[in-house]
Amino acid sequence: MKTIHLSEIFPTKTRLRLAAVWAIVVLFLVFGPGLFDEALTGTIALGTFLLLLFTIIGAAFGVVKEADALAHKLGEPYGTLILTLSIVSIEVILIAAVLLGPGDNPTIGKDSIFSVMMIIMNLVMGLCILLGGFKFGEQEYNAQGTLSYMAMIILLGGIGLLLPNFIQGAGGGAFTPTQAIVLAGLVIVLYGFFLLLQMKNYKHLYQQPKAGNMGILFSRRQALEEQATATKTTPINKKEIGVRTLILLGMIVPIVLLSHNMAAVVDYGIKATSLPPLLGGVLIAIIVFTPESMTAIKAALNNEFQRAINLCHGAFVSTVGLTIPAVLIVGLVTGKTVLFGMTATETILFIITLLLSLMTFIGKRTTPIMGMMHLVLFVVFILLIFNP
């Protein structure tokens, strides 16, 4: 096994980023309470927002960098799962911070999930299909695994976002405590079962079809044999895995510590400027998924389209599978009102996105025109935020 020095795993650039992030965390831990106890002014709020924004995005990029390195070391689908679960954990932290913040934000969970869907499944997926198509033409992916993602999105999204508007519940798109507990449990069980199958017997469904065999998927036995061979020829360096995991955690913890301050500033900014409340969810989605979106686009440009799908669709499945139970549980424990029911406009966009995604991935190769359709739908989403 090749000896790997600490400087290779933990280079100067990563050390500086980690030090800068933690320096700002200490700054806010010491001076933050005094700053936020007083009335925020526009200038102070803007400066604080920009500092927190760049710090959290910088930490998120650090998380993605380490998770991506672990992804390549551990192989698919384990690597992509680490990446998506790391990112979604950041989203849950930010949503919980806004929900528990000083303002009244009962729809922040729904706003964030819906925004993630429109950004990931339309903007990012559209760019992956279009840019990958321009470079390689039709790109191949594993249709069976991709459609299993779509099935999870339809079921979990339907239960969490569509169902509340069509049941009596607690009224106004809210679940009763019994409904919240049962549905949160069912979502967790289903998502856990999906992960188990994805990591064990059916992981070959989430791997890139072998080049030169267009449209031919390897059998489970062949896929497992290739995975075993790869593991034997490239043994995992436990020291590197351990160090990268510690760095990843070192980047996530600052986001946890700064999330409350970020929530307070965002709540102040949206109210002071009379912006649409949905922008809070859009902002969380942008902060959390910008690094992963760039990773997905790079994968498409490297002709690894299945990895792009794993990142995008896997991210949204993880978002719904983890965020809905987490937000419902936070609401039950704290007594905060949680509303998941979508508006009529959001419902139509949600259904169009699902139908368009099904049409896009019902075959085994990408079609560039479908990428343009997804991008057009995203522009419609942005238009309707500001001009409903």
Quick summary of this structure?
With 388 residues, the protein is an all-alpha fold. 76% of the residues lie in helices and 0% in strands. Helix 2 packs parallel to helix 9.
Overall description:
- The chain is mostly helical and 388 residues long.
- 76% of the residues lie in helices and 0% in strands.
- The chain contains 13 helices and no strands.
- Residues 212-224 and 229-233 have low confidence and may be disordered.
Low-confidence stretches: 212-224, 229-233
* Average pLDDT level: 82
Oligomer state equals: single chain
Radius of gyration: 21 Å
Given the helix and strand composition, which structural class is it? mainly alpha
**What's the main sheet like?**
none
Per DSSP, the total helix count is 13
Beta-strand content estimate: under 5%
Helix content: over 70%
**How far from one another are the termini?**
60 Å
DSSP E strands, number: 0
Order of helices and strands: HHHHHHHHHHHHH
Task: Write down the overall geometry.
Answer: globular
Q: Which structural traits does this protein have?
A:
388 residues, mainly alpha, 13 helices, 0% strand
List the helices and strands and how they pair.
Blueprint: H1 6-9, H2 12-37, H3 42-74, H4 78-99, H5 108-136, H6 143-162, H7 177-199, H8 220-233, H9 238-272, H10 278-301, H11 305-334, H12 344-360, H13 368-386
